[in-house]
């Protein structure tokens, strides 16, 4: 499937979670077998050029895309979790949200020193979560210089923030403005 065909599978939900927001819902994309398979294929093609030895995905939708890309390429998957979800000692990073803060954690043993890890997620908006994941993985010893997203909301600037942090960004589709 082409990127335009994939983009047509993403549902826009107006005024969610608050008035004026156009929510880009991937539920309709991942429910469409050929669309999901094509998305994973396109994302895997981007990862192949990054010479990754592992894929990291952020909870929760990054698990869908990241794990599937990892399986497709025969690579390991590093789950970047919300706090308190891992049964071992973790390392974590706090990051700012629009209203407050959040935290991401990983098992530091999941990453080898110098391992090339590519971040895969469903959407890049303001970049807060992705930047926190980059910081966390780098703190664990990984080399993180590439990220792949199904959707970019370029008006929110997240992809540019990642690039400024030394991370190349690839996306399957973008939704500007509206």
Write a concise synopsis of the structure shown.
The protein is α/β, with parallel strands linked by helices and 178 residues long. The chain is built from 6 helices and 9 strands.
What order do the helices and strands come in, and which of them pair?
Elements: H1 3-8, E1 11-14, E2 22-25, H2 27-30, H3 33-48, E3 54-58, H4 61-73, E4 76-80, E5 91-97, E6 100-106, E7 117-124, H5 128-139, E8 146-152, H6 158-164, E9 168-174
Parallel strand pairs: 3-4, 3-7, 7-8, 8-9
Antiparallel strand pairs: 1-2, 5-6
**Overall pLDDT metric:** 95
Low-confidence stretches: none
CATH architecture of the domain at 51-174: 3-Layer(aba) Sandwich
Assembly state (oligomeric) = single chain
């Amino acid at each position: 499937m082409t990127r335009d065909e994939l983009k047509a599978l993403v549902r826009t939900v107006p005024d969610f979670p608050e008035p004026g927001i156009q929510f880009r819902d991937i539920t309709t994309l991942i429910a469409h077998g050929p669309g999901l398979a094509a998305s994973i294929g396109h994302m895997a093609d981007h990862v192949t050029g990054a010479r990754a030895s592992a894929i990291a995905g952020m909870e929760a939708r990054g698990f869908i895309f990241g794990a599937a890309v990892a399986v497709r390429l025969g690579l390991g998957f590093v789950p970047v979790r919300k706090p308190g979800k891992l049964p071992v000692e973790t390392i974590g990073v706090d990051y700012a949200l629009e209203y407050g803060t959040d935290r991401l954690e990983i098992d530091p043993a999941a990453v080898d020193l110098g391992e090339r890890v590519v971040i895969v997620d469903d959407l890049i908006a303001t970049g807060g979560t992705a930047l926190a994941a980059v910081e966390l993985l780098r703190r664990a010893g990984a080399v993180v210089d590439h990220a792949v997203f199904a959707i970019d909301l370029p008006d929110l600037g997240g992809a540019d923030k990642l690039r400024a942090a030394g991370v190349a960004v690839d996306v399957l589709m973008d939704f500007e403005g509206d």
